[in-house]
Amino acid sequence: MTDRDDVLDLVARSADAVNRLDAEQFESLWTPEATWVIDPPLDFALEGSRAEIAKGFEAGMRAMWASFLQLIHSTTVDIDGDTATARTYLTEQGIRPDGTGQVLHGVYEDTVVRTDEGWRFARRHFRYLYLDQPQLGGQAAATGTFGLPVAP
Hints:
- It is globular, with a radius of gyration of 16 Å.
- Strands 2-1-6-5-4-3 form a six-stranded mixed β-sheet.
- It has 152 residues and is an alpha+beta fold.
- The protein is built from three helices and six strands, in the order ααββαββββ.
- A hairpin with a 5-residue loop joins β4 and β5 (101-115).
């Protein structure tokens, strides 16, 4: 695979980790020290070890969402030696435990570096492009599972 392919795979593995609530996989995608920023209204910033970032991810996902889905639309990649910048457009839909929801379009602006483990995120910065918080009436699988719940 090319460096570009490896960076695209890193982005895809991140969405996969989010959709499966896989904190171990999520942790493996970061450099040993990294930064993760999400703009307002969430207004979240975490700088530290990848273990701290993974703990923040898992705690936030479990506290905020009963169901969550991240879909990647496109990613641009620019490589300069052992550093790359990537821009990924995505859609997310989340359902809170109280049934309220969130539907958004956004963009991640990433700094990615080549490490002994391969390409890893050194910084991810999420910016909202559109946000709606409707009451969602559908049925969804719990985050980290596949398939809809079976009715009693």
